[in-house]
Design goal:
Elements (H helix, E strand, L loop, with lengths): L2 H37 L4 H5 L15 H31 L5 H16 L2 H15 L5 H24 L4 H9 L4 H12 L1 H17 L2 H4 L19 H9 L4 H37 L1
Helix pairs in contact: 1-12, 3-6, 3-8, 3-9, 3-11, 4-6, 5-6, 6-9, 7-8, 9-12, 11-12
């Protein structure tokens, strides 16, 4: 290796290292700002009580309504995404395995749906609400977020299934298994760690999105008991509180942001641990 290549290698290593550590530093700075400003206002009441009278003027209460509403919407949307997304991903990798062009077209469309801004899904959900005569409600929020995260579930799980050796698929069919049995008893089991990752990734996106529920889920200080009632979410609680002119209420927005960040970090960590543990158990 001559001097020029050595210099080029060092420059490239320096630039890539600088980019990597810059991203880590930016992420750390954002998390630090949220936690430093949020923990000062975070209390037991914040996570166990709903807003009371005068809450938005610095009164008592918390964001339990937003925490529960976010969980309701994210869990409901993730369930729908699993019901639709898992069979779709298996269909792409089992029934369309010989039709490469069709596979690539479907994957391209799913990638395009994944890249559409969430506010577009919110606008579509709002238009669908008007067409069906629905009010802003928990159900409308669940449907809209489900539309948002279903492409994530399909493409994430599809990427894992596409790495499974084709010989395993052919061996299953050669032993007399049907395509449905091959899909659910062979491919699904082999790609289960990827399924966990897809589900938790979609759940994290669903619980942290604000634009898709801005016009569809509504907002309320109460915990919804029925699907046709409006539901608050943590992203919207942060948005509304952060726009307040009262410093104490703005501090509570950072506390809500800290709660949401902790939930997302727990989801990300769980996805890694579950995938890693399942992969190890498969190897044994």
């Amino acid at each position: 290796m001559n001097k020029r290549k050595i210099i080029e290698e060092r420059i490239f290593r320096l630039l890539t290292g600088l980019a990597t550590y810059s991203l880590i530093a930016i992420l750390g700075y954002i998390i630090a700002i949220i936690f430093i400003n949020g923990f000062s206002s975070l209390s037991f009441d914040m996570i166990t009580k709903t807003p009371s009278g005068g809450y938005y003027y610095g009164g008592e209460g918390g964001v339990l309504n937003a925490i529960v509403g976010s969980l309701y919407i994210a869990l409901g949307a993730t369930f729908i995404a699993i019901v639709v997304g898992v069979p779709a991903a298996l269909f792409i990798n089992v029934h369309l395995i010989r039709y490469k062009r069709t596979q690539n077209t479907i994957r391209y469309l799913l990638d395009a749906l994944w890249g559409i801004p969430s506010i577009v899904y919110g606008a579509f959900g709002f238009a669908l609400m008007l067409y069906l005569g629905m009010n802003a409600s928990l159900l409308a929020g669940i449907i809209t977020v489900a539309l948002l995260i279903t492409p994530i579930v399909i493409r994430t799980f599809d990427e894992v299934l596409s790495t499974i050796p084709k010989g395993l698929h052919e061996a299953s069919l050669a032993m007399g298994s049907t395509k449905t049995e091959t899909a659910f008893k062979v491919l699904f089991r082999q790609g289960f760690s990827g399924f966990i990752t897809a589900v938790l990734l979609a759940f994290g996106r669903g619980i942290g999105d604000a634009a898709s529920v801005l016009f569809t889920a509504g907002y309320t200080d109460l915990i919804p008991k029925y699907l046709d009632e409006p539901a608050a979410t943590l992203p919207l609680a942060i948005f509304f509180q952060l726009s307040s002119p009262i410093p104490e209420v703005r501090d509570r927005a950072y506390a809500a942001a800290a709660i949401l960040t902790i939930i997302i970090l727990i989801i990300s960590l769980s996805a890694r641990l579950l995938s890693k543990n399942y992969s190890k158990s498969n190897l044994k």
